[in-house]
Amino acid sequence: MSTTAEIICVAAEWRTRPEHVDTICRLMQEAAAAVRALEPGNLQYVAHQDPKDPTHFLFYEQYANQAALDAHVASTHYKELIGTQVVPLLSERNVTLYKLLA
């Protein structure tokens, strides 16, 4: 079992063009459902959309430890939904990792 000190938090900030907003929203709902169903090491996976700029997204994720994050990135659903379908539609992508302060 992981300790609180091992929890990895991910903040991913994305931007897309207006014509891709609906597609990004749909794909992120699919990704969130897959993560929650298939990744026991995922503690939280929450998607946000800026109400003032619908092309701007923020995703907050928590993983039990590095192995859980590695499993997420290696998963088939991540590679297909994010790598193959989402990333080509983004104009900007920033991902920052944090440690949880208990």
Question: Would you write up a description of this structure?
Answer:
The chain has a four-stranded antiparallel β-sheet. The protein has one domain (4-61, 76-99): Alpha-Beta Plaits (2-Layer Sandwich), CATH 3.30.70. It contains three helices and four strands, in the order E-H-E-E-H-H-E. The two termini are 16 Å apart. It is an alpha+beta fold and 102 residues long.
How are the secondary structure elements laid out?
Layout: E1 8-16, H1 21-38, E2 42-49, E3 56-63, H2 66-74, H3 76-86, E4 90-99
Helix pairs in contact: 1-3
Whole-number tally of structural domains = 1
Helix content: 25-40%
Largest sheet: 4 strands, antiparallel
User: By helix and strand content, what is the structural category?
Assistant: alpha+beta
CATH architecture: 2-Layer Sandwich
CATH class: Alpha Beta
User: Based on DSSP secondary structure assignment, what is the total number of beta strands?
Assistant: 4
Shape: globular
Radius of gyration, Cα only, in angstroms? Answer: 14 Å
Give the mean pLDDT.
95
Order of helices and strands: EHEEHHE
Work out the strand percent: 25-35%
Ends distance: 16 Å
Are there runs of 5+ residues with pLDDT below 50, and where? none
Question: Counting H and I runs of at least 4 residues, what is the number of helices?
Answer: 3
